[in-house]
Amino acid sequence: MFESNGVIVVNVLIIGYLHDKYDKRVFRTVNALSKRAKVMYQYFSKQPAKPYYEGNVHYYPLTKSSERNPLKKIKSRVDFDRSIVKLIKTAEYDILYMHAFPFSMPLAAFKWAKKRNKVVVYDLHELHPEDMFENLPAPLRYLKRFIFWNVFRKQIELCDKIICVSQDTETTIFEKIGLRKPSLVVPNYASLKLSSPSKNKEICIVGKTPRGLSQAHIKLLSRLNEAGFLIKVIGYTPNFPDDLKYISLEALPYERMMEEISKSAFSFISYDPPSGKSSKNYMFALPNKFFDSISAGTPVIVRDSFVTMSKLVKELGIGVVIEPEDVDKSVEDILRAYENYEILFENVVKYQDMFVWDEVKEKEFVEFVIG
Fold this sequence. Notes:
By secondary structure, the chain is an alpha/beta fold. The protein contains 13 helices and 15 strands. Helix 5 (167-177) links the parallel strand 8 (161-164) and strand 9.
C-alpha cells in the first residue's frame, strides 16, 4: 500500500490459478478491482507468454506442460503449484485474492500470505470438499470428504474474508466448520441482458463440458421432440441417439451465445451428479448458464435436486422444476408451462436485473474486498 498524489493506492494480487485469462467470474474481479487498486493478475496460459502491463493491471501468465504420463503429469502440476506459491511469497501486494488454491500444497499459499501480514480473500467458485473427486466409490468418497473438509477448515481459518456463489453454500460452510468470517455472496451474474419475445420452439442446453444425462433424460428429450421441440446444444457435441432431433453449435463468443439462448423457448439445466448421489456442491449449484439464461430472457427447466436453483425458479416463477425420472409428469409440466408461456416470460423480464452484474453489485463487491 502506498500513497500517490495524496491518495492511498492498494495493491491486489489475484490468483486465477488454472482459469483462463478471460474466465467470466475471474476477469470480472480483475476489471472491478483495477478501478480502485493496482492489480497483479495471474492466469493460466496454454502457451508460454510474457507478463505485460495494461492500465492498472499487471498481467502475469503462467503455463504448465501437458503430459500423458501420470507421473510426469503430477510433476507438472506440482511445479506449477510451486510457481504460484513463489509468486505469493515474493510479489508486492496488500490483498491476496484467491480464485483457487495450489492443489498439491493446499495450505501453503494461505500460510505465506498470512506470514507476510497480507489480507486474504478466498473466492469459492465451488464447495471444494464436495466437488473434487466426487466420482470415487462410496467408502473412498466419504473419506475424501472428511479429509477435504478438515483442510478446507484450515484454509478458512487463514482467510480474512470469503466470497460464496450462493447463500446456501455460505450457510453450509459456517455451520459445518463452526467458524464465521466476513463474507459476501456473489453469484455468477450474467454480463448483459436480452429480452426477445420472439422465440423458437426449441430447448437449449448450454455448456463447454458435456454433462451426464441419464436414460430418463434422453427419453424426456425424445418426448419433447415428439411434442415439436428441437433440442439445441451450445458449446459441445453431444452423444445423443440418432433418432433424437437436435442441432449442435460450437462454443460461441459470449454475446453470440446469449443471442442463441434468447431465441430458445427454454434453457435445460438438468444433469446427473458425478457420483450418482447429490453432494452439497451439486445441490447448491448456481452455474453461469442459470444466470445467463434468465438474463437472455429465457425461462429455465431445472431439476428438482438442484435445491438452490429450484427454490429461485419456484419463488420467482421463471421456469419449470422437474423430476426427470418421472418422464410423464416432467413432459406434462413443461407442456403446461409452454401453454402459459406469456406469464413465464413476463416474470423472467420482471426479475432479470437480479441476475445481471451492474454498478451497484460491483460497488458492493469492491467495498467488501478493499474497504
